[in-house]
Design a protein that fits this description.
The chain is built from 1 helix and 19 strands. With 238 residues, the chain is an all-beta fold. It has one domain. The strands form 6 sheets. A 4-stranded antiparallel sheet has the order 4-8-17-13, with no helix packed on it. A 4-stranded antiparallel sheet has the order 5-18-12-15, with no helix packed on it. The protein has a 4-stranded antiparallel sheet with strand order 14-16-9-19, with no helix packed on it. Strand 6 (98-102) and strand 7 (108-111) form a beta hairpin. The longest helix has 4 residues, at 203-206. 26% of the residues are buried.
Length: 238
């Protein structure tokens, strides 16, 4: 488990002196202070198992480390569609499940693809998470024209016990305009602690929750087609 807050307890040295009581009579009184300082986390929060978010995991194919600071994107899955034959008809492909290793026992698991956010700022100010597709899928100079990437069946999970943020159930990305799409957002007093937005509520649903639709008339060439998803966490509520 990780520590998200560093607690410092400061108790000043005080002198308390009480005289003798005579019946109900108070002989003396003295006031002292008890102080505590809460600091936002400094360390990067590790990814958790989206199906059981109390358990930290390590991705089998890790991407970039999470962002530092008290409001952070801890992890986002790299979306893998695998190998497929070229087709001259409309085809829908579904992303492979995420492969992770559970740290407590070293067990390798399949889980839905997901993105994880932590808010340990301590101001309950709210936030919003967006995603955008940087460009259409490309293979060198070859563009997969008309291909549509969609994130479906979004579900929330958390090891925290605060008020839930709000999720967008279906997210259709626009590779032409590069416009951002909202994934989830927290109003004031929502979304504190760590929250996971997973695509599919379990492994079975996760198998069909990220899809790529490619028109049959699109020109296709052998090779690896790829693009970049940009996840943006804004320090402001809706």
């Amino acid at each position: 488990m990780y520590s998200k807050l560093k607690w410092v307890l400061v108790v000043p040295l005080v002198l308390a002196s009480f005289g003798m009581y005579s019946g109900e009579t108070l002989a003396a009184a003295y006031k002292s202070k008890a102080d505590m300082i809460l600091e936002g986390k400094v360390e990067i929060v590790p990814p958790v198992n989206p199906v059981d978010p109390t358990k930290p995991v390590k991705p089998v194919k890790p991407g970039k480390p999470g962002t530092p600071g008290p409001l952070s994107i801890d992890y986002a899955s790299s979306i893998q569609f695998g190998k497929h034959k070229i087709a001259d008809k409309d085809v829908t492909f579904y992303a492979n499940l995420e492969q992770v290793i559970q740290l407590e026992d070293g067990k390798q698991l399949e889980v839905p693809n997901y993105v994880q956010v932590t808010d340990d700022r301590g101001n309950n100010g709210g936030w919003q998470l967006n995603v955008k597709q940087a460009s259409q899928l490309k293979n060198g100079n070859h563009v997969l024209e008309g291909a549509q990437l969609t994130l479906l069946n979004t579900k929330l999970a958390s090891p925290s016990h605060g008020n839930e943020p709000i999720v967008n159930k279906n997210i259709e990305l626009n590779p032409v305009s590069g416009e951002s799409s909202q994934v989830m957002f927290a109003k004031a007093d929502q979304g504190t602690g760590t929250w996971v937005s997973m695509f599919g509520g379990d492994v079975n649903e996760g198998k069909s929750s990220i899809k790529l639709t490619v028109p049959g008339e699109t020109k296709k060439y052998e090779g690896n087609y790829s693009t970049t998803l940009i996840w943006e966490l804004l320090d402001s509520p809706i």
